[in-house]
Amino acid sequence: MVIRTQSSSSRIARWSSGIPQGAGGDPRPLLTPPPDDLACRDLVRLVSDYLDGDLPPGWRASIDDHLNACDGCTAYLEQIRQTVALLEQANAIQHPTPTKASGAAEQPGTDKGCHP
User: Fold this and answer.
1) Considering only CA atoms, which of 25, 67, 27 is closest in space to residue 43?
2) How far, in Å, CA of 52 to CA of 115, rounded?
3) Fewer CB atoms < 10 Å away: N or C end of the chain?
4) pLDDT (tens digit per residue) in 47-96
5) Residue 41 placed within a domain
6) SS3 96
7) What is the Cα–Cα distance from 43 to 20, expressed in whole angstroms?
8) Residue at 62 is within a domain
9) Is residue 109 part of a domain?
10) What is the rounded distance in angstroms from the CA atom of residue 100 to the CA atom of residue 55?
């Protein structure tokens, strides 16, 4: 779960710079091949789409190549992954799923062997 907050001007900037939009965006930029040497700033702009699996294979491979060669971006990606995991944990604490152990009441007629 990655929270996306993107203004229309940043979407336009991404499209005009040739960086893909990802799911729900204008599909034309996805047809643009990735650059031979992806810049760190491009990886930062694409990290949400990368983690969400919303990039075409060529773009994903270009990011993987960059991550193999760039310790700074690898550390950044790990920080984003940890942030997402912490946000998911905080969400689970705020909105727990009811279970039998938490005292949730059984639905009538759900016991095995009982007929409603």
Assistant:
1) 67
2) 45
3) C
4) 999 999 999 989 999 999 999 999 999 999 999 999 999 999 998 888 88
5) yes
6) coil
7) 11
8) yes
9) no
10) 40
pLDDT band at 97 (very low <50, low <70, confident <90, very high): confident
Cβ–Cβ under 8 Å, residues 29 and 21: yes
Which structural domain range is residue 38 located in? 8-97
The torsion of the CA quartet 88, 77, 11, 14, rounded to 10 degrees, works out to -170
**Dihedrals phi, psi of 22, to nearest 5 degrees:** 90, -175
Residue 29 in contact with residue 15, Cβ under 8 Å? yes
104 belongs to a structural domain = no
Q: Residue 106 class from Cβ within 10 Å (0-12 exposed, 13-18 middle, 19+ buried)?
A: exposed
- What is the torsion angle, in degrees rounded to the nearest 10, for the CA atoms of residue 11, residue 70, residue 53 and residue 37? 60
Domain count, the chain: 1
Task: Please classify residue 38 by burial: count the beta carbons closer than 10 Å to its beta carbon, then call 0-12 exposed, 13-18 middle and 19+ buried.
Answer: buried
What would the pLDDT profile of 1-13 be if each residue is shown by its tens digit? Answer: 444 444 333 433 4
Q: pTM (2 decimals)?
A: 0.57
